[in-house]
Amino acid sequence: MTISYKDRAAQLSLPGQIFINGKRVDAASGKVFDNINPGTGQVMNQVAEGDLEDVNRAVENARQTFESGVWSEIAPKDRKRILIRFADLMMEHKEELALLETLDVGKPISDSLAVDVPSSANCIRWHGEACDKVYDEVAPTGPGAFGTITREPIGVIAAVVPWNFPLLMTCWKLGPALAAGNSVVLKPAEQTPLSAIRLAELAVEAGLPEGVFNVVPGFGPTAGKALGMHMDVDCLAFTGSGEVGKLFLQYSGQSNMKRVWLECGGKTPNVVFADCLDLKKAAEAAAIGIFYNQGEVCTAASRLIVQDTIKDQFLEEVLKVTETMQPGDPLDPDTTMGAMVEEKHMNRVLEYIEIGKSEGAKLRCGGERVLLNQGGYYIAPTIFDQVKNSMRIAQEEIFGPVLSTITFKDADEAVAIANDSIYGLAACLWTGDVNKAIGISRRLKAGNMWINCWDGGDMTMPFGGYKQSGNGRDKSLHALDKYTEIKATWFDLS
User: Is the pTM of this model over 0.90?
Assistant: First the structure.
């Protein structure tokens, strides 16, 4: 008899302790907090509430481990071997990690199995493979000198990650930080601590020395601030809201001027021209681009900017696709949309829907909470038409399944609307004219530009944004720039 994912989830042992120096430990205060399943609204387990003392312990341990050289000074080929084994173990525990992710986030189990875990393991493997393939440089000097440019690990890295893709965002930071030889202290979002704790155990099992990777679950104003203010944290990498990102910049200035790398969301314009070669493909991408992961995606294509001559026809196609993407039980493999991560966030999204109505936008579908009998936090996919780009629903990051449809007449107006945002993380462009595609893509202010697709790219492509979407880049070899010092050494041979 086939066992359902719900039954398998019920059999899981859920991790809930802090992980320091290769061991699970309780919070120094003894405090715990409830971890809620967003699919049911029920408490799953209790998690240790780390705070200043726990952060101090984790950072001290990470520093001692870094200075000992057990990871920072070993040969790149040995780092590679361990990181690849780490990735292998992640895939061996694929179902367990996927269930932990779905239970914590509320995302469909099919997505956790097909996307989140494999992509996370691939990130660790990719950076592991890069360990012994990234060369230092020799400067072009005359015969009287010899100059080298070398990369060195920074030291102790703090990583603070969000709740929408907790495993993947952890690995985007962990992969290059470990490949460079650093030690890491991770604070997962308080809503989604499970996969991070389990991941740390798998890392030790793979051969990562104890103390190189530590996890302190807790809350932003305590554990997060403690990392941001810590005098012995050399670098902090954060993915999350702009509001919190700005706090980390302040903490850096108030402490040791630690470098701070930020990825702080977006309001992706999805620009569709009348000369798009495949409107049905574009319509499917428009729906998936906003309703995938319940719209809890920093690159969600939340602004559908469509040429006026095809807007009505195109929006009807998007509505057809939307009908197939209704919320359901996250542990059902047929579900394509799950639950919002927590009640507070669900209510925030519902407030934005009411704001859209009050601003005069036309509600075409959705707009309400659904599946109340399941006890979880579900919102129907929501589409607004007749939206002006000045409206709050078009300017502010809702981080939910809410699409704003805006029309334009020509290319100049499309570019003006797309760029009229404080964000610049990603942009999509649909056209059959290659000259238009190249020309407009150069004018759009976004770190990630997708032509005739949404969310294109792989580990070879850097990821990051312009403007208030942040700084620095995840993925690709460019990610190593965040976690290494560049040392210039000059030998006088005269």
Answer: yes
